[in-house]
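Render this sequence as a predicted structure.
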Amino acid sequence: MLERAKEMIYYTADEHYGHSNIIRHCNRPFDNVEEMNAALIANHNAKVKNDDDLTIHGGDFAWYKKEDDVINQLQLLRGKHILIRGNHDYWMPKFLPSHGQYREIMEHTYNKRQLVVIFHYAMRVWNKSHYNSWNLYGHSHGTLPPVGKQHDIGVDNNNFAPVSYDEIEAIMTTRDNNAGYLPR
C-alpha cells in the first residue's frame, strides 16, 4: 500500500530512452534521440521535484543493452522509481533487480481508498474493476481510447511528462464507470 505523506506519486510509460526509431514511429517532435532524451529528462525533473517522490514507469523505459546505460538514465531522473516491464524491456530481468525495483504488473491502494492497477497493456477487466478501480497503461502511445476508469500514462499521451496521482484522479472523475460496476 502506498500512502501519501510528503512524497507524491507519478506515473509514466513508453519513454523509450535511447530509441531513435520511436521518434519517427510515433511522430515525436524531436530531431534526434539526444534531443528526445534531454526533453524527457527535463520534463520529468520539472514535475518530480522531490527526491522522495515516486515515479512508476509503466513499461518500455529504455532501448539500452548495457546495464550502465539504464542505471545512468535512472540517475538523471529525480525521485525513486519502480519499473514495470514492457515489451521492449527484455533487458530488465537480467540486471535490474540488483539496482532497483521492477515488476510485471503493479497494484497499489492510494490513501487507503483507491486501487490503482498499472500494467504495460490496457486491460478489459482488472482487479476490482467492478468497484471502479483504475487501470493505468502504456504501449499504445496515445492511440487506444480508454474504457471506463482507464488512462494511457504514456509520454505520447501526456505532453512527454509524468502524470501525478492528483492529475489522474481529476481525469478519472470525467470517465464513465467500468463495465459491470457494482456500487458499494
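Summary. Residues 67 and 95 are 7 Å apart (CA to CA). The two ends are 21 Å apart (CA to CA).
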